[in-house]
């Protein structure tokens, strides 16, 4: 019969588990052995059951010093049960040295046959991983001696540890192999029917066995022979440098603890060639798929720069000298042009990141692919599936002619890697011409620690690069999260999110002008001075600039902005205005702005783009036709302001304040003397 104290302890432990309390096991009274804690804690019943059924594990935990890594029951619900679970799982969750978290090194030896290691990753004192599983910090470091006085430690973890297993009825046993022995004996291992013979043969032929046998802790990405819907690579393309690119030395990278997109040097990072590897993931329906990228930042005649991505088809396989991930194709090898990259790699796979992009290309006639083939150096900014599935753009996708024209907005007739764009963006905002006349892409790079985020704007749409530097023989592909050229923001949101329009956005906010710019029933044409224009004003007229950004002058700021704004039943593109000017024999065009209903400008069209003339000065249109859902923006290089705008209004404001002071003074005099 269970004692009331034991039942009380078990309830307390269960409460800790279910409520996520910060109280550790050790604070609940160290009076029960580990095996009894497992037995009496209902949320640890699964790990207790498999230990109890395994004679070796059960005997070990009763007689010896141990550390137990105990998955809670929820962890067991996430795995598919296998016949061999009782044979492999119990002993792989036990090590015969009692160790608290702070005592754990880079690995510990399990009690499974051959003593295969359990790898430890410490991201912080409170964030510790055991292989792929995260230690539940508040439920770790529970200590107690067993009945023989042997010290024992319990750590609760959030996933079930999965050791390398043999195939059922395998004629040969393989105990605790290193990465080379893993490949050499793959036919005897339970690898979900994957084979690695091609890669193994190349490693043998090129005498690279030693790099897979090195002691220590490393990460090995091993290509399988063939995966459905992935292109097969010619074996002879797997050379010495390519093999080295599949190994990350001195880092054991399980998927769980490894930061997405963090770059690690591979063995192919040398004086002559430099290749990084990084991990990423993508949600595909109710599943999450993981990928590894090799990024060749310095290449040679045989190995071009750019990234090659492979899907991780079987992950987190622990071996004696690190971890193995089986991948869908070899890294580093670039053997398709941009067109072939889209066709062969993605068109037959509905879960591929460019599946919708390919569909839209084919729906618009398919000639876009031929155009890509004809370009010897091209950069393609390809929208993801999620970008095309955005409900706000579905009506635009029905217009095939419009979509075909937009596709050209996504290509640049030169090779641009992320590093190229970063280098061009130093001390300026980099822009580059697309295949649409007068339509540039504008880039912005944000760096935070080791992470870099690249955003771009094209046709009035801001997009973020979500997967960069995908290599092709004739260019580079970057995956972006929005379709360029299809507006998805109102005018006010565009102002708020464009990093080059901060000053105009600020003045519009403090003067309340922006309040109306979200109205989707109206159509706005807004000549917006970019930040450069305001800096120019600060230099040319510092007094006026200073006053406009004072709260008490917000009404004047609003009046000046209203000179830049047209509200009508339609929008005015720069081409519309140019055509109207041509109809007027290149004379002035009437702009019915909110401030000046009789304002006139001239339009000039040149190889540098559009310019407008206002008050006898030509002003460059930095970006034309930035489309929004309720209007259009033309970004200009000068504020449309006269000195008299601020001086006259400022004087009026000063006189008004003076008059108010005089009235108050008269009131005070009247109050005290009457």
Automatic annotation (TrEMBL):
SUPFAM superfamilies, sorted: FAS1 domain (SSF82153)
Highest rank taxon of the organism: Eukaryota
Signal as UniProt keyword: yes
Residues annotated as domain FAS1: 31-161, 183-331, 338-484, 488-640
UniProt keyword terms in alphabetical order: Signal
Signal keyword on record: yes
Signal peptide positions (record): 1-24
Cross-referenced InterPro entries: Adhesion/Biosynth-related, FAS1_dom_sf, FAS1_domain
Pfam families: Fasciclin
Any one GO CC term of the record: extracellular space
Protein name: FAS1 domain-containing protein
């Amino acid at each position: 019969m269970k004692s009331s104290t034991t039942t009380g302890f078990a309830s307390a432990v269960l409460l800790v588990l279910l409520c996520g309390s910060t109280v550790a096991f050790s604070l609940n009274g160290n009076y029960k052995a580990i095996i009894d804690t497992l037995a009496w804690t209902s949320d640890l019943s699964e790990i207790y059951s498999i230990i109890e059924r395994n004679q070796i594990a059960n005997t070990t935990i009763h007689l010896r010093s141990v550390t137990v890594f105990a998955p809670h029951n929820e962890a067991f619900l996430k795995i598919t049960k296998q016949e061999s679970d009782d044979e492999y799982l119990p002993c792989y969750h036990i090590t015969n040295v009692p160790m608290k978290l702070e005592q754990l090194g880079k690995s510990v030896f399990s009690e499974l046959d051959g003593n295969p290691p359990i790898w430890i990753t410490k991201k912080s004192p409170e964030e510790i991983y055991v292989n792929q599983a995260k230690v539940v910090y508040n439920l770790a470091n529970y200590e107690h001696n067993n009945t023989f006085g042997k010290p024992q430690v319990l750590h609760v973890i959030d996933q079930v540890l999965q050791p390398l297993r043999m195939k059922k009825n395998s004629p040969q046993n393989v105990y605790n192999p290193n990465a080379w022995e893993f490949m050499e004996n793959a036919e005897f291992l339970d690898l979900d029917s994957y084979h690695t013979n091609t890669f193994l043969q190349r490693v043998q032929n090129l005498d690279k066995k030693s790099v897979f046998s090195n002691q220590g802790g490393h990460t090995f990405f091993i290509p399988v022979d063939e995966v459905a819907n992935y292109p097969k690579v010619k074996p002879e393309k797997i050379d010495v440098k390519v093999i080295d690119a599949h190994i990350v030395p001195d880092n054991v990278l399980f998927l769980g603890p490894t930061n997405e997109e963090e770059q690690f040097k591979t063995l192919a990072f040398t004086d002559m060639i430099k290749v990084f590897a990084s991990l990423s993931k993508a949600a595909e329906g109710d599943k999450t798929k993981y990928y590894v990228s090799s990024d060749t930042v310095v290449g040679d005649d045989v190995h071009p720069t750019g990234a090659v991505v492979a899907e991780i088809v079987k992950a987190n396989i622990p071996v004696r000298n690190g971890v193995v991930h089986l991948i869908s194709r070899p890294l580093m090898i670039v053997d398709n042009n941009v067109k072939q990259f889209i066709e062969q790699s993605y068109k037959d796979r509905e879960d591929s990141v460019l599946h919708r992009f390919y569909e839209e290309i084919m729906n618009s006639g398919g000639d876009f692919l031929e155009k890509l083939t004809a370009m010897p150096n091209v950069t393609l900014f390809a929208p993801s599936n999620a970008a095309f599935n955005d409900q706000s753009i579905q009506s635009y996708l029905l217009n095939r002619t419009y979509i075909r024209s937009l596709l050209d907005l996504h290509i640049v007739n030169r090779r641009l890697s992320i590093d190229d764009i970063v280098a061009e963006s130093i001390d300026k905002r980099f822009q580059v011409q697309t295949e649409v006349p007068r339509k540039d892409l504008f880039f912005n790079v944000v760096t935070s620690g080791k992470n870099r985020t690249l955003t771009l704007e094209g046709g009035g749409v801001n997009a973020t690069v979500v997967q960069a530097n995908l290599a092709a023989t004739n260019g580079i592909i970057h995956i972006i999260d929005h379709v360029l050229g299809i507006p998805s923001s109102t005018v006010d949101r565009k102002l708020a999110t464009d990093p080059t329009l901060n000053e105009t956005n600020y003045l519009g906010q403090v003067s309340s002008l922006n309040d109306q710019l979200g109205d989707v029933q109206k159509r706005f044409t807004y000549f917006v001075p970019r930040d450069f224009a305001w800096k120019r004003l600060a230099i040319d007229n510092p007094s006026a600039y200073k006053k406009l950004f004072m709260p008490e002058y917000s009404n004047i700021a609003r009046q000046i902005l209203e000179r830049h704004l047209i509200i009508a039943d339609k929008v005015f593109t720069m081409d519309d205005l140019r055509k109207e000017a041509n109809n007027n024999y290149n004379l002035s065009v009437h702009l019915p702005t909110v401030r000046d209903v009789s304002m006139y400008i001239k339009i000039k069209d040149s190889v540098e783009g559009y310019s407008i003339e206002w008050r006898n000065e030509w002003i460059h249109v930095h970006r034309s036709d930035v489309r929004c859902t309720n209007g259009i923006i033309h970004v200009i290089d000068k504020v449309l302001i006269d000195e008299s705008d601020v001086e006259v209004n400022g004087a009026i404001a000063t006189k008004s304040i003076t008059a108010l002071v005089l009235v108050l003074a008269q009131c005070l005099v009247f109050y005290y003397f009457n």
